[in-house]
Automatic annotation (TrEMBL):
This is Integrase core domain-containing protein. It holds the Pfam family rva_4. Residues 8-160 form the Integrase core domain.
Amino acid sequence: MGPVGLSIYGSRDHASGLVPTFVTVPDARQSVVVGHLYLDLVEEFGVDKGSETGEMYASHTALRRTYTPDLNPMEWPEFVALKSVNNVAIENLWKWFVKTFGRSLRDYIEDGKTNGLFNPGDQMHIHLFHWLWSKIVQIQLDQFKLYWNYHTPRKNSKKTLVSGVAPIEIYRNPQAYGLERLSRPVPKEAIDALRSNLPYSREEALRWVPDSFDSAANDAYAILGSPKLEPRRGWEIFGLMAQLLQDWEDSENSDV
């Protein structure tokens, strides 16, 4: 849709099938963005090869060598480079997300091409699209992650790893299924130190809109009564907010 877009970045534990993170970000091909997402993962859980994974690789390697010196990198490699199409664990997840939420979600978003509400040449509309639809998409991602981690898949006798058990159960109790937990706790100070080495902060890396617009949009959303953010109402809310944000746009244009 011209100058707007929503990137999705996810991670998945291969052994259990658990999805630790599934987020929408301004640009999933920026190394710094992925670096911060990786450190988010480490901070919460204790612990495809492209240019965007450079910062993640550096952080992961540093943490492995510091906190798991007992793990032989020849047996347990610090990092394995794969083409995205060969990263089966995460690529398979996209299929299930599309089947569960993704296709209709994309259809709702692309209604903006024909409904007359979105003007790709209007900077306020571009900001509002990113402010509003990033929130709607993230809610859908959170719902899918919750469903996926707690759902019980069918038993698959051809699968080498555990099947027929909810991913969250395998992840929490790996020893009950013949698996071993190799992760190590990482002090928050170490995570903060790695973040400080990234070119810019997490807030900057994951910022969708300027602070002035974010403040104005929050006010407009509150005036509307903070309606439930769901795909089927997305463009309705967009249209109402666009009317309220006209003053913000006028003030921005007057400052130019």
